[in-house]
Design brief:
This protein is of the alpha+beta class. Helices cover 42% and strands 19% of the residues.
Length: 435
């Protein structure tokens, strides 16, 4: 009897998503552990929230452009036929934070510092470094309105990048108040200001003429477009600052930027007057971290003093930022930063059938001593086993043959340098720890 035909499937993951093989998971987990360690040294504590939220919690928080990218979840069961959505996959980690704060304010205290590392989903067009499912890595300070909170966020994020071996980056800093001041100085009509901010947020992705053309089509005056074009062409920061300072709100924004830059106190922080950050909920200073060779940012954030109030009917100051785990990993991969293919630090080899029980007991001893250990589970001679360890970037291997058994020794081979030494079996854990 002929076998039934096998159905044809597209076995690739959905567009904008990826399968993570062991090497990639290990690399990502190592970066996440590094970042968590930095955040916790700064006093930030962990938070976890559901992968999906009620749709009304998310909509209306990200602007018109952001709302279009929300992955909606249709009603289920008998209500599925309505085609209506009642839940949505979380778009970011900030709005869920605001909901948690509004719902647990009495438990969290006046000031709360939290970090949250988890996947989010956006119905975006996939591109280099951009995915529909990706990890965000957030820290936020809720309840503090002074600039020290903003500075702590920037310093913690900077230290986390350095700890991940990404020492070369620039912090672009601006304030939404500066932008509002610019719009007023350009005499852009109130009904066109929101669109102008959306267009300015596209400056790192699109050419200026295309942006100006859309503003013209929307009805922004020729004079306003001419002033904007002039400043975008010359990037004369002193001239732009002088223009912003003529508007009281803009002058206040400049003071915010200057104060925060002074508090952070690093030479890689620069004023970027057209940095918009497209999300509607930002109210004060906003920032982006840029790295050489990467068109998009590797981190971003800002102050959002009114978001929590949308859920609690009272103003709760807050600020925070997000590190782009995917882009960090991409940069490390491009720099060929070595990652271990195995979590094990030692491979216990199997010399022959008679040594299998001894090998398993040796592995248990090492694991009980806190040493990550793998036992070779395949078939093959010693040379094949050592090649396996090298291919998995396991640095050490133990070898116990008849000679070692007779002398109660263990041979430790350091695969990093090609050397080996014999140690007493009773001192194996100490010797492994030393190496």
């Amino acid at each position: 009897m002929d076998a039934a035909p096998v159905a044809s499937f597209d076995l690739s993951p959905p567009s904008g998503t990826r399968d993570f093989l062991p090497d990639e998971v290990i690399a990502r987990d190592r970066v996440i552990r590094t970042i968590k360690d930095v955040f916790e040294r700064y006093g930030f504590g962990p938070l976890e929230t559901p992968a999906f939220e009620r749709i009304e919690i998310l909509t209306g928080k990200y602007g018109d452009e952001g709302d279009k990218l929300i992955f909606k979840i249709l009603k289920r069961g008998e209500q599925a036929a309505t085609g209506e959505a009642d839940y949505a996959l979380r778009y970011d980690l900030t709005v869920p934070l605001a909901r948690v704060v509004a719902n647990n304010r009495h438990k969290l205290g006046a000031i709360w510092k939290r970090y949250h590392i988890a996947p989010v989903w956006r119905a975006d067009r996939p591109a280099k470094g951009r995915f529909r499912e990706f990890y965000q890595c957030d820290i936020d300070v809720v309840g503090a309105k002074g600039p020290i909170a903003d500075a702590e966020v920037l310093l913690a994020m900077s230290e986390a990048l350095v700890a991940c071996k990404l020492e070369t980056f620039t912090i672009k800093l601006n304030s939404r108040k500066v932008l509002r001041g610019l719009l007023e100085a350009y005499a852009i009509a109130p009904e066109h200001q929101k669109l102008t901010l959306i267009e300015l947020d596209k400056l790192d992705k699109e050419e200026v003429p295309a942006i100006l053309a859309r503003l013209e089509a929307a009805g922004v005056s020729e004079r306003s477009r001419a002033l904007l074009q002039e400043d975008l062409a010359t990037k004369d920061t002193a001239k732009i600052r002088a223009r912003v300072a003529t508007v009281p709100l803009g002058a206040e924004g400049l003071r915010e930027v200057d104060t925060l830059a002074e508090l952070v106190g690093t030479p890689n922080i620069v004023f970027e007057p057209f940095l918009a950050r497209g999300l509607d909920y930002y109210t004060g200073c906003v920032f982006e971290f840029g790295a050489p060779g990467l068109g998009s940012s590797i981190a971003s954030g800002g102050r959002y003093d009114e978001l929590v109030g949308m859920f609690s009917n009272r103003r709760v100051p807050a600020c925070g930022g997000s590190l782009g785990i995917e882009r960090i990993l991409m940069l490390l991969e491009e720099r060929e930063e070595a990652t271990q293919a195995s979590t094990a630090r030692v491979l216990v080899t199997i010399f022959d059938k008679e040594s299998r029980v001894r090998a398993l007991r040796t592995a248990r001893r090492l694991r009980e001593a806190g040493i990550a250990t793998e036992v070779f589970v395949g078939d093959g001679e010693l040379g094949k086993q050592l090649k396996y360890a090298a291919s998995r970037s396991i640095p050490l291997a133990t070898i116990v043959g008849p000679d070692e058994v007779a002398k109660q020794l263990v041979t430790i081979k350091d695969l990093r340098v090609g050397q080996q030494e014999n140690v007493p079996d009773a001192e194996l854990e100490t010797a492994i720890g030393r190496l």
